Structure to design on (150 residues):
């Protein structure tokens, strides 16, 4: 499955993977070693916790490797239609809002990055300046007019 990422998002994931594979793996390994040195592993809570942490770490590393290997860099360049990677300025009754349309791995509403799979993101795909989109939100229907896309 293709993972859509900005260049910055891909670099962030690569750095996270590097930290997990080096620093975090070493940290968990040291925790395991210390727990093993305590003896009797059958009743050793520190050992159990370290093994669980190791499993979660290995799972996260596999997930990041998979995302990175399937990544497609999004540029936001389009023929006037909104595509993944586009920055969109919208107007609603709440005022102007600007969003960058990204893949789910990079979505961060606090930094105005919305997933193309979100209700708003999917409603925007393929639209152009001047179009109006309606979406259902937990607080009811919301209407947005597309002021511009870049």
């Amino acid at each position: 499955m293709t993972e859509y990422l900005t260049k910055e998002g891909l670099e962030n994931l690569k750095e996270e993977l590097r930290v997990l594979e080096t620093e975090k793996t070493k940290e968990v390994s040291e925790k395991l070693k210390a727990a093993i040195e305590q003896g009797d592993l059958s009743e050793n809570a520190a050992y159990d916790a370290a093994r669980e942490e190791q499993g979660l770490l290995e799972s996260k590393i596999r997930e990041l490797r998979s995302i990175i290997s399937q990544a497609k860099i999004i540029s936001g360049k389009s023929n006037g239609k909104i595509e993944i990677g586009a920055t969109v300025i919208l107007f609603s009754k709440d005022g102007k809002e600007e969003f960058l349309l990204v893949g789910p791995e990079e979505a961060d509403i606090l930094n105005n990055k919305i997933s193309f799979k979100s209700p708003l993101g999917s409603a925007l795909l393929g639209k152009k300046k001047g179009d109006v989109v309606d979406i259902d939100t937990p607080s009811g229907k919301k209407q947005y007019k597309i002021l511009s896309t870049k």
The chain has two domains: 3-73, 87-149.
